[in-house]
Design goal:
Layout: H1 27-37, E1 48-51, H2 57-64, E2 70-74, H3 77-90, E3 96-100, H4 103-109, E4 114-119, H5 131-137, E5 141-151, E6 163-169, E7 172-177
Parallel strand pairs: 1-2, 1-4, 2-3, 4-5
Antiparallel strand pairs: 5-7, 6-7
Amino acid sequence: MRIIGGNFKGRRFIPPAKNWPTRPTTDFAKEGLFNILNNKIDFEEVIMLDLFGGTGNHSYEFISRGCTNVTYVDKFQGCIDFVQKTAGELKIEDKIKIIRSDVFRFLQSNIRQFDYIFAGPPYPLPNLNTIPDVIFQTETLAPDGLFVMEHNPNHDFKSHNRFVEARNYGTTIFSFFK
């Protein structure tokens, strides 16, 4: 995996493969998403939330582009350890808050609003379809914020009242909500 833009462009990181519970976004899909985000977000001003953060891939991309306020949430200790290690190697510990928690518990107790939220849940997550509703019910997204959720073709959010658009990259789909 590599960081595709910003100060850390080209930097590679390799998460441990043994018992790794993540499905990292492909570079192809990530590049497509960030081409869109470049026109929608001021990376240096945004307050960002990375849900089901996994390898931290999305968080690193934001920080690489100038974001100084990232909150990363994942419940798997191996992911937490990897992101802490990588944050130390990149010297970005002051820009990322790493939280070990179940995403749904985090959202229920969180009192902060975020300008940009990315969720990359495991595709077979039984309650994946509830994530947009939980985001909006808990008022986690700031009033003019953007929420992007990665999913596969087995899920469709076009009828959601906050849905804006979807972008397909093979079997990876990014649904945008406002």
